[in-house]
Amino acid sequence: MSVSETSATPPAPRRWQGVPSVPGWAFWVVLLGVTWAASHYAMDIYKALDARWIIRFPAAWQPDFEGRISAGMKWLLEEAELFGILFRDVTRAIARLIEIPYDLAVDLLVTGVLQGQGQQAQQVLPPLSWIAVTYIFCALGHYAKGWRLAALMGACFLYLAVFGQWASAMLTLASVLIAVPLAAVGGLLLGILAFRVPMAERILRPVLDLMQTVPIFAYLVPILFMFGFGPVAALAATVIYAMPPMIRVTIVALRGVPEELGELGVMVGATSGQQMWKVLVPAARPTLMVGLNQVIMLTLNMVIIASMIGAGGLGYDVLTALRRLDIGGGVEAGLAIVVLAIALDRLSQAFSARTVTLRASQSRGGWAMRHRWLLSSLAVVLVTALIGLALPWVQTYPKAAVISTGQIWADAIGYINVNYFDTLDAIKTVLLTWVLLPVRQFFTGIPWPWGLAAITLIGARVGGWRLAALVFALTGLVVLTGLWTKAMMTVYLCGVSVVIASIIGIPIGILAARNEMSNRVVGVFIDTLQTLPSFVYLIPVVMLFRVGDFSAMIAIVAYALAPAVRYAAHGIRSVDPQIVEAGIVSGCTPWQMLRRIKLPIIAPELLLGLNQTVMLALSMLVITALVGTRDLGQEVYIALTKANVGQGIVAGLAVAFIAIIADRLLEAAARRMRNRAGGA
Amino acid sequence: MKFAPLMGAGLLALASVAPALAEVESTDPIKLTLHDWTGQLLTTKIMGSVLEKAGYNVEYVQADYIAQFAGLKTGDLHVAMEIWATTGQEAMDEAIATGNVVSYGSTGMQAIEEWWFPAYMKEDCPGLPDWQALNDCADQFSTAETAPFGRYLGGPVTWGGFDEERVEALGLDFEVVHAGTDAALFAELESAYQRKAPIVLWVYAPHWAVAKYEGEFVQFPAYTPECYTDPAWGSNPDAAYDCGKPTGPIYKVGWAGVSDKWPGAASAIEAFTIDNAAMGDMVGQVDLDGKDLDAVVADWVANNESTWQGWITQ
């Protein structure tokens, strides 16, 4: 994930690597020592030199980024023209195009076909009944894999009906059914473009970085102007957020196809289109499916924010419930999102992995036999629709049969609160006093001139002068916007959270790699953490730990845990079995095996996991602003509530720059480590 | 999950009735925005029901309180029934300044915001609700992070409120901690209330919390405009803000095009008023007694026909 120039450079030239004569540990110790001193004595230095600019970047030196961006956006949204057509009209036309399939999906799943407007509207056709939808997904499950998947699908959709989430879940499903294909196909096509045309990749990389790291709140208002207020704007925001992993995975997957296969395609005379779609894409499919998994997870991750701009559905239920402190209601709606995510993910994975034998067995028998699932689904749709006219419970799951666990959750939190608050409070106080507050003081105290110098030195050390120049420029921009202190707050909160997430996540990942069973359990756990809206657990966390950095940290750790676990598990699994054999032969205990053999081998993998952990931690910033942090996330949130486009984008870009700096540094460090391990 | 089946059920219900309607200027649906607090849902649904009675088509759209202004400016959304002067003033002023959004005047409700404490605190701190008692009990309100000062949980930074200035001007031994959202604010209240633990925080009304939890607002010297502008005013001769917070009206706003497209509807929206007591009562019915929101709205519409007939026959 480095800038292409850096990756194009031959193995980092020695002479540029910082101060080559200094051994590794000395560089870091000295750097840390000087930084600590600068942070600790910043006030004294400022007093001694009478130079306030050392700790506060003077406002007079700041270019008016905010005002210019606001004005630029205003021009783009209100005046800009493309061939005489208003830019806004172009985006509105696109919005109407997306709206057609979306409306169709909503008609099918939620409202039925209506004629007329508002209160005169007549329902011409009912929506698919809950029985029909459940049956269709069971059928898909059986078709894709077998009875077990069919049972899982049935259980998932029954959950939605029995717990009273049906109507909202179908609305969410409708938007997911539109957003996921858009993001997946769009991502695939852009990925192929980047694979084919090096220039496109060079342009795409920084754009991808920004798409993934600029918080969505920062560009929410412009999106609303472009796509109108409602589900389509929410879909657009979702696609922007969910597409980048698909593009990245596509590039990696196509590169990973063995060269012989590509040559084979050329030898048998495939055209370049055939080469791509018949040879490369099918060969890369297993990796591509990882991308699809991420698209589905991120799409469902967005439903809360999408519901704020008119998408409705489960996200809206979560928000409303928590606004009333109805914790049970929030948990139920939140779990419904998780259930939907798991159902769709497992189904798409199964489709990609359909085996030849399965396909063969399905193509046996007569026409009716081969199409039995399609035919029976149609039959169920028709029959339930007809019976539904007479018996309403066939059409809509009866309200009387809805189960609610609402009170149980509220009571449980209440019990913990009354009985264990003091214990939790004591633990929190210890962590705050000994970890959080000292680290915060350290980071926020660093005067910007030294901070800029230090990060440049680190860049030079791990990645050479190009990287140093890049991090210098990005950090310099953050300084110029006057957001230095807030940026350091961000670094502190994310830094501490990432360290804690790694301490918890890596052992879980190692555990998950032990066998298939633990892998599956951990998989469900991780998927839940990634898709359960953080709002659901944020409110109980606030009840138990009060508003403040500590609550924010818990939310970030919970969300950012996933990649730490995944990469650790993946790393351990890919350790060469021969090396493990060798370890056993030479009499390693399991602990020695882990510490002396496996961990050093997977270190680069762990660094990449760390990289993704940082990305997710940063993307949680805006959410944690909701529990009262004072960092860049809060800045973005304040900009949104004041409808200040410029301020939001500037703060959003500052977050993105921090993410990009972290990404490049870790990437370079991983590469160095790999080179060294590779016998350099 | 009272609102879960809203969309589906609402549309189905609409589909089943198609009464003969009075002539209206346009049958295009008027889009009213719904936010995430009960009072606003009630206000909006009452307005919507009345407009439907007048023959207009109404569509409810879920929208974020602040983000909705983007939609109101472009005419994607039409009417927002509750913009609180206390929390939405800046966004509202900015939108009205563009000329694409207009104000439909006050809803008649007044937002009250002030420092608030649960009733059980009176036992430990007998001087309350007078503000001067706060300093005597500051140690009771303190936590590890704020000691030796008391901890006052303020609203989100964006709500303003001048609490830091108030603490300074009145010499209160308190530290202001900001909650990020109102959900977080009331989560802390719920937690403290369960444990009967000391807490003093920002509460506003109309809100269900005032009905659910027993407690009182702290009595500061009453607000006057001079208090905020003139340091000489009040107990502290050197600082402004040595008084309580002002109450603020709750406004209705809408897209400027509404009065061209649906003039009758625009004047009905302008005429809409309701008072704090009636609203507080309805919010309580929904949030505390667990009544169905649409049923509460229907009750109001049935019992107040003379009121709303006046709005639509202007």
Automatic annotation (TrEMBL), chain A:
InterPro entries: MetI-like, MetI-like_sf. The keyword Transport applies. Residues 169-348, 487-666 form the ABC transmembrane type-1 domain. It is found in: Cell membrane. The keyword Cell wall biogenesis/degradation does not apply. It is a multi-pass membrane protein. It holds the Pfam family BPD_transp_1. PANTHER family: GLYCINE BETAINE/PROLINE BETAINE TRANSPORT SYSTEM PERMEASE PROTEIN PROW, GLYCINE BETAINE_PROLINE BETAINE TRANSPORT SYSTEM PERMEASE PROTEIN PROW. This is ABC transporter permease subunit. The lineage of its organism: Bacteria, Pseudomonadati, Pseudomonadota, Alphaproteobacteria, Rhodobacterales.
UniProtKB/TrEMBL annotation, chain B:
The keyword Signal applies. Residues 1-22 form the signal peptide. InterPro entries: ABC_Gly_betaine_transp_sub-bd. Residues 28-303 form the ABC-type glycine betaine transport system substrate-binding domain. CDD domains: PBP2_BCP_2. It comes from the Bacteria. Pfam families: OpuAC. Keywords: Signal. SUPFAM superfamilies: Periplasmic binding protein-like II (SSF53850). This is ABC transporter. It comes from Arenibacterium halophilum.
